[in-house]
Fold this sequence. Notes:
By secondary structure, the protein is an alpha+beta fold. The chain has seven helices and eight strands; from the N terminus they run ααββββββββααααα.
Amino acid sequence: MATDYQLQGVGKERYNMNVRGIILLLLLDSCLQPVRGYLSSPHAGHDPSYGRDAQQTQVLSTSAPPAPASSGETPLGGSGQVRGTDTPADVSSCPSGGLCTKLPAECITCKTHTNCTYGREATFQCTVKPGVHCTGGSRQQLTTFSLNMTCRFCWQLPASLYKCTNSTSCMTVACPRRRYNATCAVLDHVHCLGARTFPKRLYCNWTGGYRWSTALALSVTLGGFGADRFYLGQWREGLGKLFSFGGLGIWTLIDVLLIGLGYIGPADGSLYI
């Protein structure tokens, strides 16, 4: 009888131990589950790309040399890039023996700044590029000189001091007037601040060689046969006037009025000469 009680006590003790073990394993599994999830993540073992260490490593490992400090000496009217003084200039485009102040902008290098007052005279110190020879007011050869010019950027110059590309694809006879994007370059003898080549939006002003006087004369004399429309390159309107006898005269009178006022222009969209 005592032996049966002992066996039952041992069985309960083993049962309790098994229960405790199962509970302990469940607790350990719940605690280790986040760790297993992180280790199985595809980002495990990799530092985030936006981390501070990663940024420092990227900056320090770059092989690009640091940009040299600007000394404030820039080509007059250039884009701010400094040419070395050992780079010879194109002597063929630079006059030799003349006044230094008359040299083109590509033959000199000036220390420009934007602290001057717009529209007033400003003085800048300039250096002649290697291979270029010029003289001062006393006819002595100089390598450095003072240049006086009006304080303004190149894109602020009058239209007569720069040349721009022309477009032959925009319509000049339109209301409102149309514009196109042009690239302009300052003339060689003109000095200014900033880039010497700049973009500008201009009105369409090209011509295809048509004369307003010729178109008006044809409209008055042979307008009933569509001669004015044929001359301007408007073939469909010309045929319409030809086979309708100028719209029984009404179309002819309207075209004379519209051509005289400039509302009807060449078919290619150009201006009259």
